[in-house]
Design brief:
CATH superfamily: Tetratricopeptide repeat domain
Helix content: over 70%
Oligomer: single chain
Structural class: mainly alpha
CATH topology: Serine Threonine Protein Phosphatase 5, Tetratricopeptide repeat
Distance between the termini: 30 Å
Number of strands: 0
Strand content: under 5%
CATH class: Mainly Alpha
Amino acid sequence: MVETADWAVLDPDFAAGKRAIVAGEWDEAIKALTSAALRDDRNADIQNYLGYAYRRLRQFDPAIRHYQQALALNPRHRSAHEHLGEAYLTQGDPAKANEHLAALERICLIQCNEYDDLKRIIATYDKVAKR
C-alpha cells in the first residue's frame, strides 16, 4: 500500500487500521477503519484502505464499493485506481481493469508505481488468459 497523507496522526482508529493492514489482519483493519470512516466520511484514503482489506478477504462487492467511494472523493487517487483495477481482474473483467490503467496513465504525468504495477498485473493476466 502506498503511503498518503498521514491521517493516522490525527485518528487512532486510522492508525490501528493501517497497522492491521501491514500485519495482514484484515478483519481488524476493517473494524478500525470503519470506525475512522464514521468520523471522517470525506477521507479517500480510509475508503481505499477499507477496499483493500475487503479485497484481501475476497469480499469483492464491499471492496469495489469502497474503492469507488475513494474515487468519488478523489478521482485522482492513484492507489484506488490501481486496486480497483486489480479487483476487476480478479473478477475476470480486464476491460474495466484497463479503464483504470488508462485513468492512471492520464493522472501520472511521470512514471508512477501504481501505473507500473497495474500494467504488469494486466500483462500477466493477459498472458495466462491466452493459454
